[in-house]
Design brief:
Chain lengths: ~375, ~150
């Protein structure tokens, strides 16, 4: 380390910002408060004001389009950009038929009702399900869904282009700095090799849209704090991650309307049991999986021959590694009893006790 | 009026955004700028201090990113981290060479009292290194705050 107190030049050869540099934060604090005489007055609410100003400057009179998924990141981005430029923002929500119970209605209610967002809901569920018919390979499912999404989204951009006054120049995304950086291993080698995440990508280059990514400097927990500062409901801001291909990767094998119905109900019961028992906030992610495995059961006086529902709940700090959550037995018991009683088509519930690695969080 | 802000010039380190986050955690506004940002922009933005981030390049490599030299003439405190300090070594009249001894991972830093940056900290300090170059001649008027170097404890 070097120091020139007269000219106020300071240099260190190590990284004070990483958790495994002992008291690194104190070095930064010395720089901020003793050397730069900065005042500790900044808050997340101030981030809103700064971001709003910057979005306005960047966008000008142009139109902005954002693909709203209902997840935390795109929702916070939508609320923030809406605050900055109001009706210059158009959000597109694609109903791919692979959403959770009441998901579309919740998104419509919140963004149209509370945030007065110009929201266009495209019901493409029939198309998605038709394209997915008979497809069992997980990778093919993902590819088809990604491809179809881009087609639908591109069409929506053209429609907005025709209806709105200004030109659509920006594609807004809720991309954020990957949380994976936090898990940087002390023995993992140079930082330059850490892989980065890509959020959407895949939109054709000929659309010539500029990217607007107001969350890109933030980490997940900061995005949540920002969401709360913007007035998004607590449950929305603390929602578990949900995969882009939706329930398609939670139904092993063929995807049919009937299976989706069954899975939606089972998943909703599991999640509501986790919420009412206070377990929801303690796990990273939890969901139900539909297994097209039929087994024998006895219900009342009759014999059943129905499908299996697997419940999955994991703890994790970054999704790179995960452990199965040690949920209390009585929570599992209530979820199991309710699913078997209330969801026609399921007569057996199992709990997934695999960690990642070697298993993954999702089943497909 | 723009708030008091710390400018972080980004030389490509994956950790640049972590610095920004640590500063936010201290309730101070910070913003990441492309490395070539002009002193005028920083002045207009109410910047009270500049941090030069790390980066994957060697300052000796052809075409490696360098800041506007005016950054050092603004009278603002400048903190260089890894690649950043090597830039300072090179641009302020010192010399930087590739080191045969690359340092990645944990190391130990011993220092004597009197440093502003390390005020309130106790020597030795366990630190996290990630660099391959070192400064071989210091810029004028700057002094090393390191009487002896203890090799990485790996």
């Amino acid at each position: 380390m070097i120091e020139d107190p007269k000219r106020r030049f300071y240099g260190i050869q190590f990284h004070p910002e990483v958790a495994h540099s002992e008291r690194g934060i104190d070095i930064l604090r010395n720089f901020l408060f003793r050397i730069c005489a900065a005042k500790p007055t900044w808050k997340m609410d101030d981030y809103v004001a700064t971001a709003v100003r910057e979005i306005r400057e960047k966008v000008g009179k142009a139109q902005v389009i954002l693909g709203l998924s209902g997840g935390v990141d795109s929702s916070v981005a939508a609320a923030l950009i809406q605050r900055a430029i109001g009706k210059q923002l158009t959000c597109v929500f694609v109903d791919n038929g692979l959403l959770r119970l009441n998901e579309r209605a919740q998104v419509e209610q919140m963004f149209r009702g509370k945030f007065k967002v110009d929201l266009r809901v495209v019901d493409a569920s029939e198309t998605f399900l038709r394209k997915l018919k008979g497809v069992t390979d997980p990778e093919r499912k993902r590819k088809i869904i990604g491809h179809e999404f881009i087609k639908v989204f591109e069409r929506s951009i053209k429609e907005v282009q025709g209806k709105k006054k200004g030109k659509v120049e920006f594609l807004a995304q809720g991309t954020l700095y990957p949380d994976v950086i936090e898990s940087l291993s002390p023995n993992g080698g140079p930082a330059a090799t850490i892989k980065s995440h890509h959020n959407v990508g895949g939109l054709p280059k000929h659309m010539k849209l500029k990217l607007l990514e107001p969350l890109r400097e933030l980490f997940k927990d900061e995005v949540r704090a920002l969401g709360e500062a913007l007035g998004l409901p607590h449950d929305m801001v603390w929602r578990h991650p949900f995969p882009g291909p939706g329930l398609a990767v939670r139904i092993c094998g063929d995807i049919t309307k009937e299976r989706l119905e069954v899975l939606r109900k089972a998943d909703d019961i599991f999640i509501s049991e986790l919420r009412s028992s206070g377990q929801y906030a303690k796990v990273w992610q939890a969901f139900a999986v539909f297994l097209p495995v039929r087994s024998v059961g006895v219900m009342g006086d009759g014999r059943t021959y129905d499908n299996v529902c697997a419940l999955r709940a994991v703890t994790s700090s970054d999704a790179m590694t995960a452990d199965w959550a040690r949920l209390p037995y009585d929570v599992l018991q209530r979820a199991s009893t309710r699913i078997i009683n209330e969801v026609k088509g399921i007569n057996r519930v199992v709990y997934d006790v695999s960690s990642k690695p070697p298993a993954t969080i999702e089943w497909e | 009026m723009a708030p008091q802000s710390i400018a972080i010039l980004d030389f490509g380190s994956q950790l640049t955004k972590v610095i920004a986050r640590r500063i936010r955690e201290c309730n101070v506004h910070s913003r990441i700028y492309p490395f070539g940002v002009t002193p005028e922009t920083l002045r207009a933005d109410g910047v009270v201090g500049v941090i030069l981030s790390g980066g994957p390049d060697s300052v000796k490599a052809k075409g490696s990113p360098h800041p506007h030299p005016g950054i050092f003439e603004m009278g603002l405190p400048v903190l260089g981290i890894c690649y950043g300090v090597q830039l300072m070594g090179q641009m302020l009249g010192g010399n930087v060479a590739s080191s045969s001894h690359r340092e990645y991972g944990h190391g130990t830093l011993s220092f004597r009292k009197g440093s502003q940056l390390l005020q309130g900290l106790k020597s030795p300090l366990r630190i996290w290194n990630s660099h391959g170059d070192k400064i071989t001649r210091l810029p004028r008027a700057s002094r090393p705050w390191l009487p002896r170097r203890i090799p990485s404890a790996q």
